[in-house]
């Protein structure tokens, strides 16, 4: 519970990324979005119960801030990307791992 606004914002980010990438291409500006898996942060530890945290960990879905940074760095290095939504293949959706 409590994720409705989070989901709406993510949908908006995806649409904004696609739109801006087209609008700004002629100016040489590239726009991409990164959707990491559940990441081991303070928010993760505050949002999920201990049991849910264990499910995510057991399923191999828990990422680290360093992994997110690597995804960002990869997008920066690939100058051909624009309008891309880069999704970590381990993305956790739902309440079950």
Structural account:
The protein has helices at 4-24, 42-47, 50-58, 65-77; strands spanning 33-35, 85-87. The mean pLDDT is 89. It has a two-stranded parallel ribbon. It has four helices and two strands, in the order H-E-H-H-H-E. It is 51% helix and 6% strand. It is mainly alpha-helical and 97 residues long.
Average pLDDT rating: 89
Q: Helical residue percent?
A: 40-55%
Distance between the termini: 16 Å
Helix/strand order: HEHHHE
Extended strand count: 2
- Strand portion, in percent? 5-15%
Strand order of the largest sheet: 1-2
Shape: elongated
SS content category:
mainly alpha
Put simply, the count of helices is 4
For the largest beta-sheet, the strand count, sense and barrel status come to: 2 strands, parallel
List the helices and strands and how they pair.
Elements: H1 4-24, E1 33-35, H2 42-47, H3 50-58, H4 65-77, E2 85-87
Parallel strand pairs: 1-2
């Amino acid at each position: 519970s409590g994720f409705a606004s989070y989901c709406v914002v993510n949908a908006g980010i995806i649409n904004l990324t696609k739109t801006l990438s087209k609008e700004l291409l002629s100016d040489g500006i590239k726009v991409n979005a990164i959707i990491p898996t559940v990441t081991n942060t303070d928010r993760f530890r505050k949002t999920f119960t201990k049991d849910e945290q264990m499910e995510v960990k057991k399923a191999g879905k828990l990422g680290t801030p360093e992994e997110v940074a690597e995804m960002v760095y990869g997008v920066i290095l690939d100058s051909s990307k624009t309008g891309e939504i880069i999704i970590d293949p381990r993305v956790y959706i739902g309440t079950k791992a």
